Amino acid sequence: MSSISPSSDDERLEKPVVERKSVGVQIQEPPFDLHYVRRNVADYALYLCRGRKSSREFSNRYEGGLDHDENNTRLVVLDESATMEFDEHVRTFSARTPDEGGPHVRLVLMNRDEGTFLEAKSQALELFEEYWGINMDDVALFTSELVSSYHSRMVKVNGDICLDISYNIREDILYDQNNISSLDSTLTVNVIPPTDLRVQHEYESLYFRHNIMTGQTTYILPNASREYRGLLHTVGRRFSERVSSMHPFSLHAVILFQSLAARSVQIDDLYRRLLWIETQIYQGSIFQGTDSEKFIRYIQLSHKLSRNLITLEHRNERDRSHIDKLLDDHKRLRKLIKQSSPNSQHHIDINTHEHVRDSLLSLKDLAHDQDRQIVNAQRKTQLFITLLYNLITGHDSGINLRIASETAKVAHEAKKDSTSMKIIAGVTMFYLPATFVCSLFGTNFVAINTNTSEPTFIVSKLWWVYIAFAVPLTAATIMGFHIWRRWRRGQKNIIGELWESSGGMSSPSPVVAPEHILQLLSKLHRVSLEQEAAISDSDKGKVYSSKILDDLENKHGPEGSRNAFDQLMLDKFIALDEDKCQFAYQLINAMGATNVVEAGTSFGVSTIYLALAVAQTKAATGKSGIVIATEKEAKKAEIARGYWAQCGEVVEQQIDLREGDLLETLKVGLPQVDLLLLDIWSSLALPTLKIVQPYLRHGAVVLADNTISSAEGYADLLAYLRDPENGFRNMTLPFTNGFEMCVYMPGAK
């Protein structure tokens, strides 16, 4: 298979269009071989009406005139744009029934706008009402935008019972090309006020009437398009024999088959384009670029395909609904003819009737097959769009990591400068006493007399002058420093009061939740801090698992230290720090994450933050998702469920709590994971990561707590994360005790 260069992406994905001009509008239709489709439909029409395919060759061209001759007076096609003396033929065919030599089937094709041979379209409509008893105003109402659907009813015309059916065989959405432009190959966005988008619907409707008493059938297409006009002329020309045995619904099946056949060509064309995108993914050319604008371009093109698939789905559902309604009326028609027609020659042959029924059922199956193809294509398109969004997220994450790395380098250099200044200050303090002694002896108040046999100190009688100046100046300097500090503190207090009086906060919480949930979280964090301070011997009131384990190991030995540690922490309420919980909450919202795994739930405080963020992301994106929480101790799990119940369904419905050994419970039933939070004892962190890693999506984030204070315990985890072969990009965030953030980018260079 030859490779396709990335430079030709737009040209290969852009679909050529066929423009059909109308008054002030432009319609874009996918290209397909109308001649080929029309020939197939014409052959199918012969099969419907004769029960076999004709072996004769026919010309598809038609020249102006009436499609009937002396040997074919049973099917006539009146075309307003091609039939000379159109109005006279309308009058003529109204006077004769099939028994009197009139046509069995009257097929009328009207123009979209004004007639060719009639001065106004309303004149033709008046002729139908006057001579054929057909009120076209009712047809226009039934097929209009407000009530566009399938309508069938029984009516009486001159004492005869008739079955009337009207529906739309095609619907187009048109727009004013002066006010809106279609999505082109550039990356510009067309910003247009909603009031300027003048959109209108254009329908191609069909009207059908079958006279139960006389057996005469009438088809009228008030807005016949070029495709249907050519097709029906071809069908009319191919009948060279009487069609008294032709079923009234035969042309319904012909017209619907033409619509479905054209749609099959469109679906095949969309599949070809989707396969091209899939080839780009398999060959890896889509991953070669690092320009986010290229990914955006691919997304725009994929959205075009998705939009076309939605249109095809809508049209297919409409045709399938019409087929179902026609089957119902098909069943009713034979009963009506038997009950109402006194002349047995107007009864429909049972074989012909069943033949048309089988054809309609076949068309229904074809519509179902097209539905499945459209759904599969939509799924493929959505997968491609999701993949492209993930690539953009990973690309942006890489940029953010590079920025963070550069920031860390700057901070490291600043720290080195600070260390240098401390060294200089220390050296200065070391030499300060000697400097004082030198300056003291450099004055005239103290001197050494070397003129005598033994050197002696000479102290001036004015020595007190030095003290009189030095002490007040030193006191004034110290007092000035304290006054300056108090003034600065007062300024900060004033700014804080002004900020609070304006309703602001120095560090507002990003969490959006009902008030009772916020109060519960505040209470739980306060209890956690009190518990942590009670069992901690550090000056910061923080618990360091490595320090506690070392102390227990000295008391109980290596084997008993782990059990002693578990017993000590069994009832200790220690939650993830509040600022770290808020960071995880913000990160989930920023990523659009919906599937989160928390290793180490404990009493479920941090889980509440994760559930709130996932619920908001699901509501915004419409995606499904879950927070998978893990806890070994049944007592802690029970307490956690109680807190979640207090929060309500907004939290409870988002959480799947798995009790037991997480190294076992996480082995099954994991979705594609967007974020993994490691808040467990250091020895379990790396095994947990290796279990979840196969389910991490490209661009997923791994968070690990206390990676600075417990760096020794996390040594194996940090070594694994920082090994480039494992696909993680890492940075340590400046939270208390350290908070490691890693972005999973497998295969990225």
Give an overview of the whole structure.
- The structure is a single chain.
- The chain has 749 residues and is of the alpha/beta class.
- The chain folds into 3 domains: 34-269 and 308-392, no CATH class; 446-501; 578-744, Rossmann fold (3-Layer(aba) Sandwich), CATH 3.40.50.150.
- Helices cover 53% and strands 15% of the residues.
- It has a 7-stranded mixed sheet with strand order 13-12-11-14-15-17-16, sandwiched between helices.
- β1 and β2 (25-29) form a beta hairpin.
- α3 (86-95) packs parallel to α4 (121-132).
- The two termini are 27 Å apart.
Please bin the fraction of helical residues: 40-55%
**Shape estimate:** elongated
Give the low-confidence spans: 1-34, 53-73, 114-118, 177-197
Number of helices, counting only DSSP H or I runs of 4 residues or more? 19
Number of structural domains: 3
Question: The biggest beta sheet, please?
Answer: 7 strands, mixed
Q: First CA to last CA: what distance?
A: 27 Å
What's the quaternary structure here?
single chain
DSSP E strands, number: 17
Structural class: alpha/beta
**What is the rounded Rg?**
43 Å
Mean pLDDT: 75
Biggest sheet strand order reads 13-12-11-14-15-17-16
Tell me what portion of residues adopts beta-strand conformation: 15-25%
